[in-house]
Amino acid sequence: MAIQNVRLDSDGDSPSAAAKSTSLATAVATAPDRLGALASVGELAVANLAAGALLSVQDLHVHFPINRGFIVQRTVGHIRAVNGVSFHVNPGETLGIVGESGSGKTTVVRAVIQLERPTSGSVFFQGEQLVGAPSEVLRDARRDMSMVFQDPYGSLNPRMRAGNIVGEPLKAHRVFETDDEYRERVGELFQMVGLHPGVASRYPHQFSGGQRQRIAIARALAANPQLVLLDEPVSALDVSIQAQVINLLEDLQDEHDLAFIFVAHDLSVVRHTAHRTAVMYLGKIVEMADGDEIYENPLHPYTQALLSAAPMPDPVTERKRERIVLTGDIPSPANPPSGCVFRTRCPIAISDCAEIVPRMRSTGSLTKRHEVACIRAEF
Ligand SMILES: Nc1ncnc2c1ncn2[C@@H]1O[C@H](COP(=O)(O)OP(=O)(O)OP(=O)(O)O)[C@@H](O)[C@H]1O
Ligand code: SF4
Ligand SMILES: [Mg+2]
Which ligand is nearest to the CA of 350? Predict the structure, then answer.
């Protein structure tokens, strides 16, 4: 088995400054003459864009400084919430991102839409580099890319009526000509998510959790985006309501050819929705695969453990299945383990795992890619 890995730097810290605002389309067009620019843009991002990706994220890092001191503040370390993440999303498809609490899922999606400014790496959306981009570029990008936040209770302004909440992006991006057009569009958005337009004058506290999430989805769809970032859109809802909201999202995706990044705690939530699934652990993607591949043939011990914990609908299979119980908590992202970040909980770790940072290795075909970051994964 060919293993391509990398020995640790002295402190395993991130690369330097944020990427420049470069049009990826320009970089692709002029790549043969500008090898230097191509290298800074990143070969993977170029390849993804050339293949028609809507979003291409490469080697994304988000490190939060840890400051100490009362009068004079000093930075004494960094929380490496996202520590070198790469992926792409094609038009109309869903990328599922799954991982335990604290693995960096929310920070990734917030960095994609630039609510969190990345420490380094690139985020190309519709061919534009968003990292370090001027505010006009970000404003345009946020019309075509929107977000549904993790908490359906905290993400809606309690002092605003539902109609104004849903209509906010229409005003921000001036996507209507007249007041009648605005009102018509707000009514349409309520209907689109299965709510009666008559409830537009109510305040958020007058809705149930599921209805609030529908309002958040209507707001996210208001300006006709191409990509919606869904940060645990169903985790706070009852199981019966979860299925309704997932079905609604799938219908909306088909009708409007939307692409989604769907963040979840649990692989079973995204299994039937995602066209590709990425598993995150301590700021890194440890495994990612197209279609059902990750569920049928998990290669990373962490993915295997997550899947072994998922309940089976068939009671006989449920009784027979072998559970892999992970011991210990997820380590602190302020002080991640050397080598493979999963090694402190990995049931098959060897001494090399403390020394070697496992690189993503690919298997499968171009249409069914499977990537894993483990020096012991065999395929
Ligand atoms: N603004 C911030 N400042 C400092 N640390 C942060 C900040 N935001 C997130 N973190 C830390 O970064 C790590 C990743 O957090 P994040 O919210 O992205 O994880 P998550 O996978 O979304 O978790 P959950 O499933 O609980 O929502 C955590 O250790 C968190 O405490
Ligand atoms: S690299 Fe080592 S510690 Fe990491 S998942 Fe593979 S076997 Fe486990
Ligand atoms: Mg989160």
Answer: 2
Instruction: Looking at the CA of 99, name the nearest ligand.
Output: 1
Where are the domains positioned within the chain?
300-379
Tell me which of 63, 64, 329 to substitute to probe ligand 1's pocket, judged by most ligand atoms within 8 Å of the beta carbon: 64
Amino acid, single-letter form, for residue 335:
N
Euclidean distance between CA atoms 207 and 199, whole angstroms: 9
Question: What is the position in ligand 2's atom list of the atom closest to the CA of 350?
Answer: 2
Q: 370 in helix, strand or coil?
A: strand
Question: Across all residues in the chain, what is the average pLDDT?
Answer: 86
Which helix (H) or strand (E) segment is 96 a member of? Answer: strand 94-98
Q: Would you state the pLDDT for residue 61?
A: 98
Q: Which residues are within 8 A (CB) of 271 and not within 5 positions of it... i.e. 6 or more apart?
A: 96, 277, 292, 295
Model confidence pLDDT, tens digit, residues 150-172: 887 788 999 999 999 999 999 99
Helical H runs in the chain? Answer: 24-29, 35-41, 43-50, 105-112, 135-144, 162-172, 179-192, 209-221, 239-256, 267-271, 293-296, 301-309, 315-320
CA 302–ligand 2 middle distance (angstroms):
9
pTM tops 0.90, yes or no: no
Q: Say which ligand is closest to the CA of 108.
A: 1
Q: Which residues surround ligand 3, an ion (CB under 5 A)?
A: 106
Which residue lies with its CA nearest to atom 8 of ligand 1?
107
Report how far ligand 2's centroid is from the alpha carbon of 304 (Å). Answer: 12
Closest residue by Cα to atom 5, ligand 2, is 374
Residue 171's pLDDT is: 93
Evaluate whether 103 touches 303 at the Cβ level (below 8 Å). no
Report how far residue 246's alpha carbon sits from residue 320's, in angstroms, rounded to the nearest whole number.
30
Q: Is the pLDDT of residue 38 over 60?
A: no
